[in-house]
């Protein structure tokens, strides 16, 4: 069986899918639109719609059903475009929107490929310099279109994009949508504690993943900012916005959405910001929410 680099499973006990759909349906706000074309559904990838074994049939069909019905389905991820593109075939995602790099990139996907609509970059020099004072052996990565530029080797299998080895000085001199800081010698909590004590934690967005890996972007650039930019471009109502995720980089969009959903595998740090806690990825919690939206809007899923 193929294994995918993504968040680990939560260990949640199996639950009946129809029960999960019913719970999500009952949780939808009364002001949620009945017109499916007024709905935007933002889906995180890792730990939300992708597990180590891939994307389930329920997830793939639910995304397809929303697209067929006229909803706007948005993949909202911390991944770069180069790391998102290999996942799209697993999801059957042939058209729609991508908010990548934690909101720094907005792209439109179509049958012929994709196009970048918005791209927000920053200079990482200040962040790199401050990080090296506390983490002298840290590894850095920056995005340059679909290529990941790295200062030294990352642990095997962690980077799915094509990479090019460059000096730290070269990374300092470029502009990038997102900087990655990785320190494999530290556990996640110690790493996060060190980063959050550095000055750039107050001047930039800092998102720590499930290991000692952090995504850094410009202050104010989050999945929520990228989604709201798209929502306004499409003239969609705030009342029809849904966001589903499980990580610290999902908190902003969960708070932003009219219906913010935390996955069952999310920690309490994320759950406290949500309107609803869905089942974990191994129980197709995101698919259950998508099916509930279809039923609320009176749309058959197949």
Which architecture of the largest domain per CATH? 3-Layer(aba) Sandwich
| CATH fold-level topology of the largest domain | Rossmann fold
Helix and strand element order: HEHEHHEEEHEEEHEHEEHEHEHEH
Low-confidence segments, given as residue ranges, are none
CATH class of the largest domain: Alpha Beta
Proportion of residues in helical segments: 25-40%
The coarse overall form would be globular
- Count of structural domains: 2
- Assigned CATH superfamily of the largest domain: HAD superfamily/HAD-like
What is the number of helical segments per DSSP (H or I, 4+ residues)? 11
Based on CA atoms alone, the radius of gyration comes out at 19 Å
Amino-to-carboxy terminus distance: 28 Å
* Coarse structural class: alpha/beta
Query: What integer is the average pLDDT?
Result: 93
**Percentage of residues in DSSP E strands:** 15-25%
Tally of extended strands? 14
What does this structure look like?
This is Phosphatase YwpJ. Keywords: Hydrolase. One of its GO terms (molecular function) is phosphatase activity. Its EC number is 3.1.3.-. This protein is an alpha/beta fold and 302 residues long. The chain folds into 2 domains: 17-120 and 222-297, 3-Layer(aba) Sandwich (Rossmann fold), CATH 3.40.50.1000; 124-218, 2-Layer Sandwich (Hypothetical Protein, Haloacid Dehalogenase-like Hydrolase, Chain: A, domain 2). The chain has 11 helices and 14 strands. It has helices at residues 17-27, 57-69, 81-84, 88-91, 125-134, 168-173, 188-196, 223-233, 251-256, 268-271, 285-296; strands at 40-43, 72-76, 96-100, 105-110, 113-119, 139-144, 147-150, 162-165, 179-182, 204-208, 213-218, 241-245, 259-262, 276-277. Strand 6 and strand 7 form a beta hairpin. Helix 1 crosses helix 11 (285-296) and helix 2 (57-69) packs parallel to helix 11 (285-296). The relative contact order is 0.21.
